[in-house]
Amino acid sequence: MSLSGLGDTGKAQPPPALFPAPESDTPTPGRRRGGAPQNRPSQDGPGQQTDDAGRQLVFFGADAAEPTVADLAGLLAGPGEVVRMGGTARLSVQVDAAWRVHVLVAELASRGLAASWEPTEGARHAVRTSYTRVLKPLAAAWLHGTTKRPPAAFHLTGRRLRLWLAAAGTPEPPDCFLLRLGAEDKECWEPIGVALASAGLAGTLLGPGEGGPAYRIAGRRRLARLAELVGGAPSAAPADAWPTRP
Known about the structure:
alpha+beta, four-stranded antiparallel beta sheet, 6 helices, 13 strands, about 25% strand
């Protein structure tokens, strides 16, 4: 991996050839997702901006900021894992569809992190970064020994939610969305629920025997809020796999 030497080198495999590579997932400076030029925002009130068409954007929405490595906490809110080795760390997550591989590889690349993938059991795919110093602060914040637990001040922004949804979000018609959690991360479940509620997405925790672990986000108002925060669907995502604004 290159990018000013911030990371380790390694040869990354191309994503599964089931979808075209989602070039639009890599932000271009000065442009929003979808290619529209980004104008200087005008303030309409606390925590909101207005774009060219007059649509209000949530201050912490995915369209409101440039991607950073800190956004990867969204993967750790879900089933993502981080492990340390010396002064480096590696992030990995298992996903259930090839389109998720495309989206995550592009999202990682936009943050200067090369990713590899490999098929796993049950028609799943493992996406992982190389060991790199860039991820050391993330690992330090989330790992207590080998146990994953969110830091005390953890909160969910649009970009963090976008990554979580890309890795483990599942629609549940007609008016629900599941955000899946790590099966072994029980210490994370409650604080993640608090962070969801603080973002206006209070959900119901489903245990392993109820189709979880996952948080169910229910109701049109909350789904509209989720869609507003995570932004438009990635080009690789199936039409029905992403929340849409009403």
